[in-house]
Amino acid sequence: MSAEAPRADKRPVTSEHHGVTLVDDYAWLRADNWQEVIRDPAVLPADIRAHLEAENAWCDAAMADTVDLQARLVAEMRGRIKEDDSSVPAPHGPYAYGSRYLEGAQYPRFVRSLRDGGPEEVLLDGDALATGKAYFHLGGVSHSPDHRLLAWSLDDKGSEFHVVRVKDLDSGADLADEVPNTAGGVAWAADGKSFLYTWLNDNHRSEKVFRHVIGTPAEADVLVYREPDPGFFTGVGKTQSGRFLVIESHDHETSEIRVVPAADPAAEPRLVAARESEVEYSIEDDGADRFYILTNADGAEDFKIVAAPVEAPGRENWVDVVAHEPGRLILTMIVYRGRMVRLERKDGLPRIVIRELSSGAEHAIAFPEEAYSLGLVGGYEFDTTVTRFSYSSPTTPAQVYDYDMATRERFLRKTQEVPSGHEPSDYVTRRIFAPAADGAKVPVTILHHRDTAVDGSAPLLLYGYGAYGIAMPAGFSTKVLSLVDRGFVYAIAHVRGGTDKGHRWYKDGKREKKTNTFTDFVAAAEHLVAERYTARGRIVAQGGSAGGMLMGAVANMAPDLFAGILAVVPFVDVLNTMLDDTLPLTPPEWPEWGNPIESAEDFARIRSYSPYDNVAAEAYPPILAMAGLTDPRVTYWEPAKWVAKLRELSTGDALLLLRTNMDAGHGGASGRFDGLKEDALEYAFALKVTGKA
What we know:
Blueprint: E1 13-17, E2 20-24, H1 34-37, H2 46-62, H3 67-79, E3 90-92, E4 95-100, E5 109-114, E6 121-125, H4 126-130, E7 137-143, E8 149-155, E9 162-168, E10 174-188, E11 194-200, E12 206-213, E13 222-226, E14 233-238, E15 244-250, E16 255-261, E17 270-273, E18 281-285, E19 290-295, E20 304-309, E21 319-322, E22 328-336, E23 339-346, E24 349-356, E25 362-365, E26 373-376, E27 386-392, E28 399-404, E29 409-415, E30 427-435, E31 441-449, E32 460-464, H5 481-484, E33 489-493, H6 503-507, H7 515-530, E34 539-544, H8 546-557, E35 562-568, H9 574-578, H10 586-593, H11 600-609, E36 623-628, H12 637-649, E37 656-661, H13 674-689
Parallel strand pairs: 32-33, 32-34, 34-35, 35-36, 36-37
Antiparallel strand pairs: 1-2, 3-4, 4-5, 5-6, 7-8, 8-9, 9-10, 10-11, 11-12, 12-13, 14-15, 15-16, 16-17, 18-19, 19-20, 20-21, 22-23, 23-24, 24-25, 26-27, 27-28, 28-29, 30-31, 31-33
Helix pairs in contact: 3-13, 7-8
Protein name: Oligopeptidase B
Keywords: Hydrolase, Protease, Serine protease
Pfam family, one: Peptidase_S9
């Protein structure tokens, strides 16, 4: 490595907010034509492209000594993937629908067969559709209720602008229907002749819902709903019964729902309950005369379930069905004919509860492991006694079960295969609690090989997120085994900002309490040192997106605690982004972080922790930041600016690297094997900085 690391030009841009002058030396890395860039990367200005490509070349040079290691990691990770894998078919009417990968395929095929068996029919071939494209993503695949048509969407830039197309399943022909600028999903009317979809404006906001009639041009689509608040997302869906199309408007703490009868898609959308600040709700129906509503109304912080008449669903008619229980967070529900299934979390662990709607009798599905992940899979059918769920733990590969709600029998339908072999007894999973400075107990999930000594000598990868109320599941990951089998301890810090310990855990990690997320992560790292799972300076921290903000914050707070930091599409330029209301996610994000445009207090608070604004003259640990050029969520310039400033101010000589995928967005490379190359780079970095490469 004889060449010097790239140094971005300093072109100061000055702005003033609430009497404070901000100077941003690297603002020029934000392309003025960013809206065009996420649709067509070729129009990126030449000087910005040159800088990003120089950073990529420098990253390649810095990691050149790990090229063979990266190849081995890819081979290991790929060896744990069953290449000819398939989903458990989901029955619907005369058919069963599913997906299947062929050996060597990057993308799935979507298939169906007769419900009781028979030859498989290929509905879509992902690899064929992706041919010749640097990036390809299927946004949604949805068959019509009469099984004649298939609506599917694709994004070939990584920008998350999806084009919806329609296929005639009888003839196999693609119809002329093509609907651009959508969020990707559709909600079919009962007769299969039209569907609702969400339209994205130039700022990538889901502003409008349209109805598309099959066989007509997109220009003729009828506006069904327009969301007036730029801070709200809009989406479409359908109740499990299929009776109602659902139009939901929401930000991170408030929601509002309108319904349209699926049998009368041209009807005026009917409001369920008017939005109230910080009141959230979602709905299902019983197929007859009642809505069931999951909500935090009336101070139900951890949510409750109420019922209301379909013909009069307003708040004044809500009656509790499953009362609020503090500390038991109800995550989601599905209503079938005569029964309700809900997924809830208590004491950091999930469980599934079945309720008989007629009697109110309940029973739970429980599991014995110390840490595990559960998920409701659902399905297409309403008149059924069978519900489907998934289960895994850090040591147990994913399993899919069908559960008969009437007989209480569970049927294992699939266990994730690890072709290269996996013996769960070779690994140890533990759940410990790290004491935070204010007395809170931060759950930490731990995975290590049984032969790894717990004496402080092991390197450790500590993962964290902590935002939007998203909990980090203690599930199975084949990828992390490449570290664990090399003597790493793998840990997840379930920091505040997620709902791992209930909704209060989320509220205690947002807005004015955001710094709890960062101090919780540091507390978790220090407790792992105290418990001799690792040592100070032997920890690699990892987080992505909002978890990348966490990475930037702890790099500023405790740089000597970490051997390295992996920041994947990191949201690190928080203040500048929240001050720019033209960016895709800024207005919807204000409830999460605060609005620094309107509030001097929010401005000061965000400025106090925003990673980019708090880079200082200190010795930073090695850092690898990963970015996507067409990312509409965390724009590429955030990590680019951050690394430029780190390289300018850091007083040490640690590696500070930026890798930008010039053909992808927030999720990185799209193919299931291409994505492994990015994982391998990240893990090679972790091994390199801990001396294990």
